[in-house]
Amino acid sequence: MNSIKVLERDNNHIVIEFNNIPRQYVNALRRLSISEVPTFAIDDVVILENSSVMHDEAVAHRLGLIPLRTDLKRFVMPHLCDCKSTLGCSNCRVLLVLDTESQDKTKVITSADLISEDEVVKPVNKEIPIVSLAPGQKLKFEAYARLGTGKNHAKWQPTSVAVVKDSKDEDDSVLVIESNGSLKPEEIVLEASKILGSKIKEFDSVIQSLSLPKNI
C-alpha cells in the first residue's frame, strides 16, 4: 500500500517517508525543490552612493545572496506578469532600500538595515552582515527583488539541504528538506509536487498528440 508519512517537521526542516513509492519520484521532488521552486532574491541594485571600501559589484553580490521571505500567493514570475516590463510592477517585484552612514565610529551594516516596501518580503535573518562603514562613509541604494528559480542562479534556491535517504524498509525512501527560510519546508515540498504534477500532465499531453505513421 502506498503512503506518505511526515516523520519530523519544524520551521527549518521536514522529513517525509514514502512507502512503496518509486524512488525516482521522490528524487524528482528533491531535484525540483532545489531547482524549480521559485523564491525571491535581489536581482538588480541601483547604487546611489557608496563611499565604503567595497566595490558596488561586491555589495550587489552580497545583497543577492541574502535569503528573502517569499509569498508565492501574491506574486508571479517576471516573465508571466501582465506588466510586460523589465522594471516590473507590484505584482512581480519588491523594492528594498538602504540609506545609512557612519558617524564617529565603525558601523556594521546588516540585513536589518534593509527597508522593504512589502510587509512579508524581507530578509529571513536580521544579522546578515553586508559591509562595514568607517566614520564618514555612506551607503545608499535601491534593490529590486524578483522571483526566480535555482536552475538560473543559486541565490534563488529555497533549500540548504535536500537529500533522499534509504528507510528501514528497502521499499521505502526518506526525503529530507531543509529550508533557508525563504519558504516553509512544507511549502517547498508542496510547490515541488505541483510542479511535478504539471510536468507529468504536459508530458502526457505531448505523448497523446503524437501521430503514428500510417504503415504501422
Question: How would you describe this structure to a colleague?
Answer:
It contains 3 helices and 10 strands; from the N terminus they run ββαβαβββββββα. Helix 1 (23-35) packs across helix 3. 21% of the residues lie in helices and 34% in strands. It has a 4-stranded antiparallel sheet with strand order 1-2-10-9. Strands 3-8-4-6 form a 4-stranded antiparallel sheet, with helices on one face. The protein has 2 domains: 3-36 and 158-208, 2-Layer Sandwich (Gyrase A, domain 2), CATH 3.30.1360; 40-150, RNA Polymerase Alpha Subunit, Chain A, domain 2, CATH 2.170.120.12. The chain starts with a strand and ends in an 8-residue tail after the last helix. The relative contact order is 0.23. By secondary structure, it is an alpha+beta fold.
What would you call the structural class? Answer: alpha+beta
Count of the separate structural domains: 2
The value of Rg in angstroms is 21 Å
CATH superfamily of the largest domain, please?
A: DNA-directed RNA polymerase, insert domain
Cα separation of the termini: 39 Å
- The helix/strand series, from N terminus to C terminus, equals EEHEHEEEEEEEH
CATH class designation of the largest domain:
Mainly Beta
On the 0 to 100 scale, the average pLDDT is 94
Give the overall shape: globular
- The CATH architecture category of the largest domain equals Beta Complex
Q: Tell me about the biggest sheet?
A: 4 strands, antiparallel
Low-confidence stretches: none
Tally of strands: 10
How much helix is in the residues? 10-25%
Q: What share of the residues does DSSP label as strand, in percent?
A: 25-35%
Specify the number of helices.
3
Strand order of the largest sheet: 1-2-10-9
CATH topology of the largest domain: RNA Polymerase Alpha Subunit, Chain A, domain 2
